[in-house]
Amino acid sequence: MLTRSGRSLGLLLVVALVAAACGGTSPTADPCDQITVEDAFVRVPPGANTAFYATIVNGSDTDVALEGATSDFAGTYELHEVVMKDDQMTMRPIEGQRIVVPAGGEVALAPGGMHVMAMGVSKDLAEGDTVTMTLRFSGGCEKVVEAPVKAIGG
Ligand SMILES: [Cu+2]
User: Does residue 22 form part of some domain?
Assistant: First the structure.
């Protein structure tokens, strides 16, 4: 009787240790759970088009890519970058419509750099409003983000 319960206690301990080892960051963890979107906002539309900005943090051990975004306040959404061309700042669609966020890293979509271009704005957006953006990542991952509408200088 003593030997028997001693053995099952040992077995329990092994099971507990294995369970602990599998917790945390196992390689099979869904990278989607470890993508966070911070400081999201949309610029008060200066005209027919506007832009969405945010910092995307990838806490997983796999590279992920932002592959698109949608919402209900504009006609089309494109991933854009700002480049210098003939000494002038100009923007263009990002090749392949993909922004890679490296494993354990982050990428900032910010004024003067990369952004989600929202074209054909169909809603009256003013400072203080909020829009809901759905960001689509590689691997079928989608993140829904509440983004305040903000006026930015310039
Ligand atoms: Cu743009």
Answer: no
